[in-house]
From TrEMBL:
Coiled coil: none annotated. Belongs to the peptidase C19 family. CDD domains: Peptidase_C19. The keyword Endoplasmic reticulum does not apply. Residues 22-35 have a biased composition (Polar residues). GO terms for cellular component: cell-cell junction. GO terms for biological process: protein deubiquitination; response to auditory stimulus; sensory perception of sound. It comes from Lates japonicus (Japanese lates). InterPro entries: Papain-like_cys_pep_sf (IPR038765), Peptidase_C19_UCH (IPR001394), Ubiquitin_hydrolase_53/54 (IPR052398), USP (IPR028889). This is Inactive ubiquitin carboxyl-terminal hydrolase 53-like protein. Residues 69-390 form the USP domain.
Amino acid sequence: MGMKWMEPMARPTHQLPPPGMSSCSKSPPNSGEVAGSNSMAWVKMFKKPGGGLKKSYQPGSMLSLALTKGLLNEPGQNSCFLNSAVQVLWQLDIFRRSLRQLSGHFCLGDACIFCALKSIFSQFQQSRERVLPSDSLRNALAETFKDEQRFQLGLMDDAAECFENILERIHLHIVSDTSTDACSSKSCITHQKFAMMLYEQFVCRCCGASSDPHPFTEFVHYVSTTALCQQVDRMLGKNERLRSDMFGELLQAANNTGDLRSCPSDCGQSIKIRRVLMNCPEIVTIGFVWDAEQSDLTDDVIRSLGPRLNLCGLFNRVTDENAKRSELHLVGMICFSSKHYSAFAYHTKSSKWMFFDDATVKEIGSKWKDVASKCIRGHFQPLLLFYTNPEGSPVSNEDAPRQTTMCPRLPPTPPSLIPAPVAKLTHAPAPQFSLLP
């Protein structure tokens, strides 16, 4: 399509491959492939004339990049889908700080996803190794979902569904009452930070008839890449400029494409569904639905991505006053290429975009366009986009569990947490840490 965002603003400030066909497992690279060139590079940079390294982590410093570590993916493990999700979660400041606030939970021992994630985060911060195993979380996922035969050891799986299920299990590890449709716990990271509380309704502009509102919660807002590109083509055909603040409107238009229903009063009119956001999520995840594992639309989709997201543009209506004013920043992305998952994330301390490919960690650049260029060169298909509120804060722990309670088995995921079915071919669907702010 040859389009690009006009004057992109500076950053602040799937068919699932069959098991056994993944190119996901790789041996760890040599140390030169991990962030930075070698340990002496940043040591030399921070040597003071009088001696000693600087003790504080400065924006843009290689010292702060020392906390970006790779994750092992040995031959046959096929853990790239999990490693990508973990790396993005670690780099999401709101999530990392929120998880650090919590310790008490409902624990499943070796099958506890909460403990496994806390353990990996602790190693990210404290370990001297530059490449770490993610086995504890892989094992916990496999044990948790063995009845469903999902996320089993050695088998490739879907990164988007892995991400959603990690969020769902975190909710169940923190909140014991799963009978309510809406979680009101102030300590639940899943609902307080990621959940989009919505309702759908059909309203006929001709006769005024309306359907009953249908409330639901989603953690990932899925959009068809084909519909997205059609909307971009439509705009360019009308000689409209594709501004960086229009991405939400593009996503909304794409989501509504072809979604017509008959008027509930049978007046003969076809009407579109209206989606209303009722809360103010601080982390919004956009999921892309691809018609094929390899698509000719990949480059066009990447060029259409906006570095900012306004919630008022994403939905037909927003009721929360804070949500009306919030502008979210793109800080993470999980991609798929050649039956393999990788991730990009914005490293706040260094003000750099980083690329995470299992054991390999590389600095990409300070601007989103640097990421877009690499994606186009490498034919990376975006799967999940992560937008966050730069003013976001950690969850409160005032109603969090004060102690850890061992449980033989957590209850099944309640219906209110199960993602609504999406007609899609996607590539798809503990120790404490305290150093980072």
